[in-house]
Amino acid sequence: MHYKVTHTTRYTYYEAVSLCHNIARLIPRSTDKQVCRSAVLEIYPAPDILDEYEDFFGNKVTYFAIQHEHKSLTVTVSSEIVRTNPGTLEFSLYENTPWEAVKEQLYSLRPVDTDILQYIPETQMTQASPEILEYALRSFTPGRPLFEAARDLMQRIYENFEFEPGFTTVTTPLSLVMKERKGVCQDFAHLAIACIRSVGLAARYVSGYIETIPPEGTEKLTGVDASHAWFALYVPGSGWIDFDPTNNQLPADQYLTIGWGRDYSDIVPLKGVIVSSGPHRLSVSVDVRRVNNNAERPS
Amino acid sequence: MTSPTPAGSLFQHYFNSNYTYDELLGVDGNLRPHWESFFASFKGLGPAEIQNRNGDLTRLLKENGVTYNIYGDPAGFKRPWKLDPIPFLIGRQEWQTIESGLIQRAGLLDLILKDIYGPRRLIRAGLIPMELVYNHAGFLRQCAGIQLPGKHNLVLYAADIARGSDGKIWIVNDRTQAPSGSGYALENRMAMARILPELFNGFKVRRTAAWFEDLRNALEEIAPGQKPAPRIVILTPGPGNETYFEHSYLSSILGFTLVQGNDLIVKDNYVWIKTLGGLEKVDTILRRVDDVYCDPLELKEDSQLGVPGLLGAVRSGHVSIANPLGSSILENPGLMPFLQPIARYLLGTDLIMPTIASWWCGQEREMGYVLDNIRSLVIKRIYKDSYGSTSVDAASLTEKQLYQLKLQIKAHPSLYVGQEKIHFSSTPALVNDKIEPRHALFRSFLVSNGESYTAMAGGLTRSSSEPGNFVISNQRGGISKDTWIISPEPGRVLNVRKELPPAAAGNSSGGMLPSHTAENLFWVGRYTERVLGNARFLRTVIKFVAEGNRLLVEQDVQAEQGLLLKALTRYSYTYPGFFANGSQEKSADDPWPELHNILFDGKRTGGLHYNLSLFNQAVHAVRDHWSTDTWRVLREIEEEWALAAALENPGPGKTLEALDGLITSMVAFVGLNRESISREQGWIMLDTGRKIEQSLLLINMLRATLVHYYDKQSQYDLQEAVLSSSESLVNYRYKYKAPLQLSLVLDLMLLDDNNPRSLVYQLERLKNYLANLPKNQPGNHLSEHEKLIWEAYTLLKLSNKEQLSVFDPAISDPAVFDTLGRIPENADGRHGNRERRQGGMDAWHGNAVGSYGNLEEFLSKMYSLLLAIPDNISKTYFKHAQSQKQLFTHR
Predict the structure, then answer these.
(1) CB contact (8 A) between residue A21 and residue B142
(2) What is the CATH number for A126?
(3) How far apart are CA A192 and CA B457, in angstroms?
(4) Structure confidence by residue, pLDDT tens digits, B314-346
(5) Do B130 and A277 touch (CB under 8 A)?
(6) Which domain holds residue A107?
(7) Are residues B269 and B380 part of one domain?
(8) Which residues of chain A lie closer than 8 angstroms to B298, CB-CB?
(9) A155 and A22 together in one domain
(10) Range of the domain at B579
């Protein structure tokens, strides 16, 4: 499946800003499930400085600075992504392995695989609590196969928590999400990750997009018109498996990945520092479109 | 326990405790030779002299402004530094082992640092458990791959060292983030060499000062592109930081500009310092700000101490930071048990100096050991929490606390380390004029010299405040000691002069005045004059009160009471003060409680004590600008005022004495600055602040005293008060040889350019200063603040003393005046409580029979013109006042 994504972020300032530094993590990665054919970042006003590099997790980072007065900032990324592995997931090998056994295997990996193990310790945004551990253990019951437990956790979050935009902010702690049972995709991903890490397994936070066109006669998927977030669980032998607790789905075709990290703070799509005393306004729009396969694909 | 020794009687209080190892004694139970020589000199001085010198030591450090800020304690701010006259002695042979052990360790830690932020093969090889790095808050993934020019990434290293009860030397802590203490060590040595030179007799004590040359070289070496004269700055969190004294001290001895985060800016991927004259490129930063606070763009988002984009500039190789961002990963007690195997793996050799026995709880067996033996261990977290202590002596915990701690360890085993509790040796300390044993911790400082490391021959020793206390921390009231590395060869004398700190390089900071510093100097100037103006006016008022002047106390003229007291309230903005409803008569009858409050209550906004605190804060914020002489004056000001404030009932005599002292010291402060602030722009900034404040205060005083007319005598007295508090009374008599009259008073105070107290005198200087400030825009046009001063100056020059003295009788009672508006001879202003609101705020002039409208209009216009100048200066030159803001895409 071939997609075009247009993702625009616009800041409007009430007072002119003379200097801003920004870091964008908006260029999608290529993974074993997708190829990012092209990605173009357009910034207005044109930045005076622009650097690109890969971060610690292999995500593509763009640093830019605007060093002259401007009253608004628009960042548009247009990318073309081809999903290469339309979602036939193979768990056969681990379908029946209890999660405790998987945990043992993780720790006995030699040589030490930091690329996986670094996703086990909790982070600021995925702090466990006795409540979270207890919530996790209801899915991670003794001897239960890993995949089944994770899928159950996803489903329970989907059923127990209400999707309510605006209830949380980037700094809302998980404890409040747990208490109020409300949040958005980012909170649900963090919660699931905190649960999985609390039992000693590896999970990471995935930032990306979800296709917006709803199939006829079915309910429209939540999380459209914005970037989306979900989590991935590490399963030895199978690799990283995506789960979307917001929609209770195993991400397949409609999910496009930008990048990942231990939590949101590792893969913030766009952040910046301005020197200004005035307020600002933010608007974001995301458009994910399917491209005619035959027209695009070379014969 | 001890046999009589040459210094035996000194130790009568010493050997009562049962310590297994004592610094004083050799294996034979006799005093070690170097201690024996030391105490021979010590005893030679005699107890009385020791006591004297000890006092001198404290005073010298205080006068030099050596302070240490204690967090969370208002009284702990600017706490004077404590120095024990008995140093910590280390023999040369032992030092050679320590030195080589430290050099080896610094090199090893450097390799580990480079590996952690590079290939991480130590983790892959299983030599460092990954959790020790990946779960450590100091592992900054954003810093991966960053490499300094030269061999080392770890430029600075400090280690806390202690001697155990078995006599062995142990390394207790590694300091790699932004090691502090080297400046204090040097200052300790300087103080010892000056106050107690006799003690050095018979020793060859190695110099500490030379190490700072090595430090400077190291910082120059790491500058990008091997520049010949790189620009180096010291980045400080600011005056509130515990070791701020040291930051400014290092700045002055090394000649590097002291900056705060908002003095710097990242532009074009380079770091620049914002100076009055514009942006100047920075090559190397000596960092005293913790790494996560250094860049709000990529690290701690809400940090106000850093520079947005700094990490990007580092990544581009355009600026070098020592120590590099991310180096706090090595301040990690969890690493200790793994250093020995790493040394074998990387260096092929054993550690020269042992690390204190530690058990990292991330391993099952070790956690078991720690939990089983917890009472005999010190438990440490692998990284520092933002607040609170990182190490706990488990033996000091209650059962409940111990249970909690065990739970925490079990919940996050990889974050905890159990460490053997060292029973420190004891070393002699002078406590209340007696020699007593204390535990001591010695901090040694190392700096890269390109190939290897150079250790300071000396260091900072701190001893515990209580006997038997093992937790030694400046935050908890420890006492410092000079540290002598000595050889037993007798007869060689320390050359005290050689201990002088290296001369500042000069060129690296030449003429650079960070805008932040400029602003502080500007405020030092303003507060100086504010304190002086208020002190002089108060002195005048108190003299009037004390002399029973009718303006204040005459009983039969109730309505006129307290005019001067009210003028004081208005002048100093200490409302309600002598305007207080109901209490008006009372406070005029007995003005002392209110006067005492204005003088000595530090919480009284606008009061003298309050202004003095603001002055002190501003002074401390730019402490590297003051000479030693200036510090002495500043100390005197603070101490003498505190003494006066502490008096139960000072009375006019003592109060006037205190005010005289304060005024003299403040004048001395101004005079000393003229001589000692070398940086031209710094002086301009300070004096600009002074001139603005002087002008505003003068206008304020004239408005509070001369604009309204009550009766002849009051007018005369108020005019006299103006002249006397401006110290212009003699000048007036000399110049006019006439009784006081308004037009002449105005002539002298506003228009006489020979009178250094006059407004025109201030404005002329202000005009010159403002013209000399750097232009931010090319061309010949005037800047905003220049336009304002020209307008004010012209207004003043075009004014006319006769015009300003035209009297407007109060309209509501025309009968009092003759048809020409002149004041009738018999008008004495007794007009009851008629309200005459003029300009809204003058209800208190209820008793005035008229006013000088032209004068009021002129002063008011002048005031608003001058008041706009600091606003404009601030906008143009102190741009850092703008705050940084975070932008986030919310989901």
Answers:
(1) no
(2) 3.10.620.30
(3) 55
(4) 999 999 999 999 999 999 999 999 999 999 999
(5) no
(6) 99-265
(7) no
(8) 23
(9) no
(10) 521-678
Cα angle for residues B837, B839, B844 (degrees, 5° grid):
45
What lies within 8 Å, CB to CB, of B151 at 6+ separation is B448, B450, B451
- Measured CA to CA in angstroms, residue B655 lies from B17, B535, B536, B644, B881 at distances of 51, 11, 12, 7, 39
Other CB atoms within 10 A of residue B604 CB: 18
Alpha-carbon distance of B281 to A98, in angstroms, equals: 60
Quick one: A217 and A108 in the same domain? yes
- Which chain B residue has its CA at the smallest distance from A207's CA? B891
ipTM of this model?
A: 0.91
Choose the closest CB to A121 out of B123, B126, B135. B135
Looking at B404, B421, B438, the residue that finishes a domain is B421
The answer to whether residues B566 and B594 belong to one domain is yes
Q: Determine whether the interchain pair B886/A121 forms a contact, defined as Cβ–Cβ distance below 8 Å.
A: no
Contacts of A270 in chain B (CB under 8 A): 887-889
B882/A21 CB distance under 8 A? no
CA B132 to chain A, closest CA, distance in angstroms equals 11
CB contact under 8 A, B308 and A53: no
Residues of chain B with pLDDT under 50: 1-7, 19, 387-388, 490-494, 496-497, 502-510, 553-561, 583-584, 813-844, 890-891
Kindly give the confidence (pLDDT) of every residue in chain A, 299 residues in length, as a single tens digit, with 9 standing for 90 and above: 899 999 999 999 988 898 999 999 999 999 988 999 999 999 999 999 999 999 999 999 999 999 998 999 999 999 999 988 655 555 555 567 899 998 888 888 777 788 899 999 989 899 999 999 999 999 999 999 999 999 999 999 999 999 998 888 888 899 999 999 999 999 999 999 999 999 999 999 999 998 876 667 766 555 456 789 999 999 887 889 999 999 999 988 889 999 999 999 999 999 999 987 778 888 888 988 888 654 444 43
Which tokens sit at B342? Answer: 């790493």
pTM (two decimals) = 0.83
Token pair recorded at residue B873: 């200066």
Evaluate the CA torsion angle A12, A14, A17, A22 in order and state its sign.
Answer: negative
- Report chain B's C-alpha Rg in angstroms: 33
* pLDDT for B826: 38
Q: Show which of B469, B499, B529 is a domain's final residue.
A: B499
In angstroms, rounded to a whole number, what is the distance separating the alpha carbons of residues A274 and A74?
A: 14
B884 vs A184, A227, A273: nearest CB: A273
Is there a single domain that holds both residue B129 and residue B157?
A: yes
In a domain, B608, yes or no: yes
**Chain B residues inside the 8 Å CB shell of A22:** 297, 887
| Residue B274 parent element (H or E) | strand B270-275
In terms of C-beta density within 10 A (0-12 exposed, 13-18 middle, 19 or more buried), how is residue A214 classed? exposed
Residue with tokens 């239960």: A144
Pair (A103, A8) in one structural domain? no
Count how many domains chain B has: 4
Claim to verify: residue B470 and residue B576 sit in the same structural domain: no
Establish if A158 belongs to a structural domain: yes
**In this structure, are B735 and B750 located in the same domain?**
yes
In this structure, are B446 and B407 located in the same domain?
Answer: no
Q: Provide the domain count of chain A.
A: 2
Q: Do B163 and B279 belong to one domain?
A: yes
Which one of A21, A117, A186 has the shortest CB-CB distance to B297?
Answer: A21
The pLDDT, as a whole number, for residue B554 is 47
Question: Which among B126, B884, B889 has the least Cβ separation from residue A9?
Answer: B889
Produce one character per residue of B123-138: b if its CB has 16 or more CB atoms within 10 Å, e if not.
Answer: bbeebbbbbbbbbbbb
pLDDT value of position B481: 93
All residues at 6 or more sequence positions from B828 whose CB lies less than 8 Å from its CB, including other chains: B711, B712
What CATH number is associated with residue A56? 2.60.40.2250
